[in-house]
Amino acid sequence: MRDQQPKSRDATLTLHAGAAPREVGLPVSSPPVMATSFFTHPDAIGFSANDLKDAAPHFYSRWSNPTLELLEIRLAALEGGEAALSFATGMAAVSALFLDRLGSGDHLVLSNVCYAGVAELAHDILPRHGIAVDAVDTSDLEAVAAAMRPNTKLVHIETPANPILRLSEIAAIGEIAHAGAAELSVDATISTPLGTKPLSLGADYVVHSLTKYIGGHGDALGGAVIGRQERIAALRKGSLIHLGGSLSPFAAWLILRGMETLAPRMMMHEANARRVEAFLANHPKVRSVFWPGSPRHPQHELAQRQMRNFSGLLAFTAKEEGGALARQLAERLRVVSYAVSLGKTKSLLFYIPTEDILRSSFHLDGEGARSYREWAVDGVFRFSVGLEDPDDIIADLEQALG
After folding, report:
1. In the record, which positions carry N6-(pyridoxal phosphate)lysine (predicted)?
2. CATH number of the domain located at residue range(s) 10-259 in this protein
């Protein structure tokens, strides 16, 4: 009897999970792109998605596709989940999950600081469908528990939270959600599967924007939800097929190619962010810096327990008016790009004014607004530290800050 193969580690899974058995003549390279809209045989499957079975063959690329399937197998392996489902964008993934798990009369508890698009979906669109939403500081476990209702069906957190890098304790929130017969979904885009594995900490779903670190090159949009097999199958049959946010095979191929370097990239992102955080923390124009890997982060102890890689995203605030400094940086930076998004190979920096995001996306006032301002003051500089030589990044910051 042959010995059982040892379980592969993350760096190996990013390259080999889901690969076909080796055969003579097959290339040792990235998988081919199956860029066809349909696969056909008269007896393959019924015309309606209601006929879709777990073992159904590929039939129509909005439903499934070989390239997407490999990406999904690889993502599930990285997260330690039973199954994964890919989408055209991270927002498509979150929207599909929310609309699958929530209906009229249900209640969502949401991190009050999270990706702006998710916050706007929750505040501006879900209530039109009869879904109640409470946005709370999910770093405060008592606030999460107090927000739970008998009709709460889903708790959705983002950790670290975009843009201030505030953390939420996944295991403890999972216990609160499950005690109230609700499910927990975690957006772990910033930490990546190499930093945090929410399913192992008690989450029911983990969500990623594949556009960011997992794809890594800024050349493809994508999203994914990972969880239990039966839940992901229901999500495919319902929200993916009928809402139509399917990922293109070519984008899936680009993301698979990017995933192959995820492990070394995240090591470099983390190492560079550590250097940049130390520089900014001692700069006379900088008021505060937030990066989970630093002892200066107010939740560093939780980060050490919950994260294995601290990622390359940090945030900082200015001692003087942030808007003026943002304009100065936009004009002077040469290595770092003044641009939105995060998780690319190249360094990106962008200023997010506090009053703008409180009003337009987060809808925060009272204690929630006060707590956000404690971190962000008049505005926060979100800095996605890239893979350039750290000395060059720091030199660029030094000349641009003046």
Report:
1. 212
2. 3.40.640.10
